[in-house]
Amino acid sequence: MNLLEDFISLIFPRICLCCGNSLWKNEDIICHLCDYHLPRTNFHLDNDNPLCKTFWGRVVVENATAFLYFNKGGKVQHLIHQLKYKGRGDVGVYLGIRFGRQLSSVPLYQSIQTIVPVPLHKTKRKQRGYNQSERFATGLAESMNLPVNSHALLRIKTTETQTKKSRFNRYRNVREVFTISDPASLQGKHLLLVDDVITTGATVESCVQALSAVPDCNISVACIAFTRA
Asked: How many domains are contained in the chain?
């Protein structure tokens, strides 16, 4: 079996998605060196963190956290690029599992009952083949032992990319593009709304506004990466 694996690795080499170096047999997705240097935020340990402050005065969220910092040209950007544009949905699952283990040990997140990924419009989902936020949610759910609800929150309008828009234009771009299709499945629950990258928080804010119509619903937020101000 080891000979077969070695032969396959010659044809389809397993490489670190951060640095491009070959992975050892006990490594997956990211080499140990790159994993060690990933810029973790540790926001889950502090409910007065910069991501929480992003939503102050805009929408009500119980808690907000991010696994990593997003820096242009950095290792995290390489991972997100693979996840969103190179068909590597396994990156989202891997990061979700890793982050979910941390959240499970923190009282702020132990009351979560359901994980809700920020949805893609059906057109974009068809083009990409999957929703990257849902892949992240799948990993979180595995390590937190929670269900994922991917059908109750829907994106009803397609939008332009947010990448080069100002904060105000990001908000206008995603205003009233989300709706709730099954409020009963969310009613009375503490939800963890998850996204891939949060910059200004406009997309998540729009989702929270839609979810706030669900009776007795509390909302916390988690993402793979948060862009430094």
From this structure: 1
